Amino acid sequence: MRISYKAGVPVLVALSIVVSGCSAGSNKTMTETDPPPISYVNENVTLDTEVEETSNEVVVESTMRELYLVDQNGLVTPQALSLPKSEGVAKQALEYLVQDGPVSQILPNGFRAVLPSGTEIYGVNIKDGVAIADFSEQFKEYHPEDELKILQSITWTLTQFESVETVKIRINGYDQDVMPVNGTPIGEGFSRSNGINMESTNIVDLSNSKSVTLYFLAQNGDNVYYVPVTRRVNANEEQLTAVVSQLLAGPSSFSTLLTDFRYGVQLLEEPRYANGVVTVNFNEAVLNHMDGTAISDEVLNLLVLSLTEQSGVEKVAIEVNGDSKVLLETGEFLSEPVSRPLKVNSGKY
Predict the structure, then answer these.
(1) C-alpha distances in angstroms, 349 versus 32, 109, 110, 217, 223?
(2) What range does the record give for the signal peptide (predicted)?
(3) Is 348 domain-assigned?
(4) pLDDT tens digit string along 135-162?
């Protein structure tokens, strides 16, 4: 799919972009005429699902892993890929983040690994929620602009495992207090709370702001995928309300990211949280599919991925004008709260 540019705003052929007056970002939207993007909400793939492929009577066992690679826009993005089954799953996942390493055989178009070529992973020690990853000297040989991408790629790849909350770095067995090129402090470890794909912000008083992680859409040719970004918001705003409000504000006007929320969507009340489930109630403008009668897979995915990134949220329930009977683009009704998929961006590229 050809990408053209007009007046500094990225315009994707077969995608319409609507710029709103919101200060936080722009509502760049997709239309119903687009080729159907890949949906990831109702995946049933478990973390250690084995796939058997037979060739000349040789059975190869594999498992799906989420690797955080860098896309053509320089954004750290999850890609669920099939790796050979291994006992040292954390170490293996990091090995697949090395440039010119084994990931080269399965690297999706438009993506690159971010760890310097030749980097060896000596081991990953996991204890009490902390993963200590030990790298060879080649780890130091990266461009300064890749430092945060490397930290985010390592951290978000390792924290896909339930036993890992924080990541620490060693080089040749020595603990690192700062990253070797730009000196980013890492002595206390890195976690998802440090953010990913941090947006530049106009907020001056950082002490009175907090971070929220949101998911928007990106496109590479005919392939549509989900990208997490971290944005600063007012510290006094209720967390779940802030997430939904920022989703509706759309991606930054300076980014190439897209949204499937149409202009005019409103949250009718603050999200309600109980027992791991958050319920969000919108006006009818959220129904952007089938002549305004159904909610698109993309809108549902953006909500579920963004809200379940927040602590304690396991499922998302959708209401329209207080009615929980919401039609999906498949023609079925949303019958129960939706869980976060175990894998994000598991489409074939």
Answers:
(1) 22, 7, 9, 15, 7
(2) 1-24
(3) no
(4) 999 999 999 999 999 999 999 999 999 9
